[in-house]
Amino acid sequence: MPVEVLDNELTDQRLNQLTQALGSGMFVHVRSMLHDMAASDVAFILESSPPRTRQVLWQLIDQDHTGEILDELGEELKDNLIKQMSPERVAKAAARMDTDDLAYILRSLPDSVFNQVLQSMTSQDRTRVEQALSYPDDTAGSLMNTDTVTLRPDVNIDVILRYLRIRGELPEATDTLYVVDKQDSFLGGVRISDLLTCDPNASIRDIMASKLEGIPVGMSDSEVAQLFERHDWLSAPVIGDDNRLLGRITIDDVVDVIREDAEHSMMGMAGMDDDADTFGPVIKSTLQRSLWLTINLFAALLAASVSNMFEGTLEQFATIAILMTIVPSMGGVAGNQTLALVIRGIALGQIGQSNSRWLIGKELAIGFLNGVLWSVLVFLAIWFWKDDIALGGLIGGAMLINMTVAGFAGASIPLLLKKMNIDPALAGGMVLTTVTDVIGLFAFLGLATFFLLN
Amino acid sequence: MPVEVLDNELTDQRLNQLTQALGSGMFVHVRSMLHDMAASDVAFILESSPPRTRQVLWQLIDQDHTGEILDELGEELKDNLIKQMSPERVAKAAARMDTDDLAYILRSLPDSVFNQVLQSMTSQDRTRVEQALSYPDDTAGSLMNTDTVTLRPDVNIDVILRYLRIRGELPEATDTLYVVDKQDSFLGGVRISDLLTCDPNASIRDIMASKLEGIPVGMSDSEVAQLFERHDWLSAPVIGDDNRLLGRITIDDVVDVIREDAEHSMMGMAGMDDDADTFGPVIKSTLQRSLWLTINLFAALLAASVSNMFEGTLEQFATIAILMTIVPSMGGVAGNQTLALVIRGIALGQIGQSNSRWLIGKELAIGFLNGVLWSVLVFLAIWFWKDDIALGGLIGGAMLINMTVAGFAGASIPLLLKKMNIDPALAGGMVLTTVTDVIGLFAFLGLATFFLLN
What we know:
Function (chains A, B): Acts as a magnesium transporter.
CATH class of the largest domain in chain A: Mainly Alpha
Organism (chains A, B): Shewanella canadensis
Strand order of the largest sheet of chain A: 1-2-3
Number of helices of chain A: 23
Order of helices and strands of chain A: HHHHHHHHHHHEHEEHHEHEEHHHHHHHH
CATH architecture of the largest domain in chain A: Orthogonal Bundle
Largest interface: A-B, 142 and 141 residues
Family (chains A, B): Belongs to the SLC41A transporter family.
Oligomer: homodimer
Strand content of chain A: 5-15%
Shape of chain A: globular
Keywords (chains A, B): CBS domain, Cell membrane, Magnesium, Membrane, Metal-binding, Transmembrane, Transmembrane helix, Transport
Subunit structure (chains A, B): Homodimer.
């Protein structure tokens, strides 16, 4: 029953089995289990294991499969494992890796190891890799593979069919063959399904899609992903400035970009790196999280220094102190809702010059309406709790101010950060919370001081 | 230069052009611009437009293209537009939609319209749709299309090649043809690229991949997505309990699931629905966000009631009131870092019985270490600011307690919620913040009361 191994609970079971076999020292058994698994499954198990188990598993893995498994791992874990490998082993693994993944790995190596690895390669691999390295990270070039099959436009289909039969197996995930002229200029593409169904006497020119668009090699990987998503592509040709065909991008690499971009927004908003390794070592994780906590400490001290300005009020009215966290809290949540929406819109490329002003206006309006709604509710809640109608009014007024500001800030901060070329997913949350905390405390304590002390 | 239109800035330019043309009432021009665009591009422009522009654009769109455009829209906007359409227009659009998307749309219609739409369909379309509707939403069945091309195992390749040539064009995104026996039981698959390269005298049985795994029709769509990602599939067969081939799932629909799942985590953590429409109307958006704010109001009142327990302390020491927001704030950030990591791990299926205890232990350790680090730093900061060593010690001690709790709670809350079948991405953040606020205030105010008042 091949279907059963698909089930996630069974992946979990397999993990349990492996863990038990490791625990009782049955290394030969574990080795043979790992040998029988697909590279992607081994990678998944490594990702899901604590550091010590990982170390043992990694040593039990077939050297021949190292490359394929590295291909499938997340960046942080991949970097760690490679750092421990000898340059020879990296070079050996390299032979079995896709060009784009290999280029990624080489980029992260120290220079000395990098050169050693390059030298241990065959000259063919070396050329292939050196070319891939010439494209900046996070561009179409870095996602690209060079395993394209190209055709000339004036050849008949049956000649092509004979050629393909002699050539043998096509590269993985080939759905389109590309048509180029003698100078390798990109002319169009022919879907392999069309080769099967069309008249064999037709020429490539007759059946090729000349409207097929080539992706410029310098386009950002997020834009490439948007195009794939919007047009349901399985693969797409990559072309240089001179319209020469350089390679192709396949959907499996694009899926990784989509996943990474989406995770980047989610993890970034919580102050985490999207490469963060769920089962990474404790000390390293602790240090990685420190930066964000440092920034937050300053934000919290800033908020405290706002309260400090109203020490006199707080000395006289303990109730004010008790209630003063409510207004910043509601503003923070309302602002974060807007922020998440706008960050997603930016990531999807939905927000541009033509509509950003409208969007800010809309979020300001929502903030104001929510402010009206919640200032009334909080007014009633506090009046009921503390039996003090003035206090209820004060907190309601502060709430209205803070939630209106939160709507405006939640929409404009990420757009402003983007204009300044600062990543809104990373910085947006902290800047926003600081604004809503400061404004919230200032509004509530300021109103209280004005009305209660005068 | 067909490449240029790929550029996102040019999409933005096109949006500007459309907006201007609309503004100056050049509807005929707009209509012809929309007519020349791909359905996916029109959908993108609708998604990126404010409500009023959307209404006008929607009326200018060719009725013949409605189905394809609806296919490409986000759920909230799609639902809205369909509600405004006449049953006849929905039925007409239906003919041009994929089965899975159509089933989705029908599910969201009121019963009366639903029946009207079904009756306006051809009987062939009706059967196709009724079958798709029988599978629950969010399962493999609901992602599935029935446009499979099937083969028998004992036929020669050249017979198949002749058959395909007569049959004509293959369905979109076909990379594999499926092999079934007389009872439609699933036997395996043949990649179309292999049909091109293998010996025409071989039989299907010789070249078919019999190890190909079929996806059970009831598998959840997130698990389907994980399998596609892990195995780099372009399409996969879907089978029923009796091993009969029911249809196939293609990567373009899976990409939507991956995107939705990732967005769900991000938007959920900020208290937003992942279907939320960035350019939706104000009143509707305001109401959608209210639920989360209501819950937060209770959480904030709970925190305030903790402070209320220490009214005596707050009355005597205004400084305590000034500093009391720092400890909950740091705990909240630290806990949220852990929460984001664990929620992502759950979404990726990385966390199971075998490693969840290890993970909680690791996050507890990180929380404790961070607690030690930050209690020292905060101690120094407060000592320096307020020139009061006892106060520094109090806040440092509370910080250590709260950050340790935050690490433990950030890891265990989502795992606990998952066990209770509550969505951790949605509920996790609010539960966690409540815990870190309450514990943080309790620890700081409690320690202050104990040491300063006694």
